[in-house]
Amino acid sequence: MRKLIGLVLSLFVVGGAIAQPDNSRALEGMTQAKVVWDITNSNPAFLTVQMQVITETYQNLKEAGLQPEMTLAFHGQNVRFLTEALDTVELDQMVQVEEFNEHLNALLKLKGVNAEVCSIANRVFGVENGKIRAPLDVVGNSYVSFISLQNKGYAIIGIH
Fold first, then answer.
1. Phi first, then psi: what are they for 73, rounded to 5°?
2. Rounded to an integer, what distance in angstroms lies between the CA atom of residue 11 and that of residue 34?
């Protein structure tokens, strides 16, 4: 019994000495953190979680001494979730869409974070450009925006 207790205690001690995961290797040599999030997913619960992960990513970059520059680019059916009145959202999705928007709003308050909405997606999914809420910017074509941002050194990460 004494050996068993000693073994269990030694496992706790060894387990405590294991290094926690970090981003030091990934961030080695980085001087800037520019990313465009290519967001086409239209599941509001999934988008809520992704807004939380993007916020955590922003915080990780800040902790590493970098000032993140992030553009969240929405194109796809998700544009229906970005209107002022949410009049294009189905009733059974409303609570989750509102939660998604709360997380998006918090993210947009962070320095260096902005969002854009594709006018082509608006047209395809029946959303009037003028109904997209501030501070989101409506752009002519998200693909043109991606080309521009990538040529300016932004990484592109897809949320599909």
1. -110, 110
2. 42
pLDDT value of position 9: 47
pTM of the model: 0.86
> Quick check: 98 pLDDT over 90?
yes
Find the mean pLDDT for residues 28-57. 96
How far is residue 17's CA from residue 68's CA, in Å, rounded to a whole number? 32
**pLDDT of 4 strictly over 80:** no
Comparing 5-9, 79-83, 121-125, 156-160, the range with the smallest average pLDDT is: 5-9
Contact 114, 108 (CB under 8 A): yes
Q: What is the DSSP annotation of 53-122?
A: HHHHHHHHHHHTT--EEEEEEE-SGGGGGGBSS-TTS-GGGHHHHHHHHHHHHHHHTSTTEEEEEEHHHH
Alpha-carbon gap, residue 75 to 93, rounded angstroms: 18
Please state, in angstroms and as integers, the Cα–Cα distance from residue 32 to each residue in 61, 62, 66, 122, 150, following that order: 9, 11, 6, 32, 14
Distance CA 41, CA 76 (A): 7
- Under a CB-based contact definition with an 8 Å cutoff, are residues 76 and 42 in contact? yes
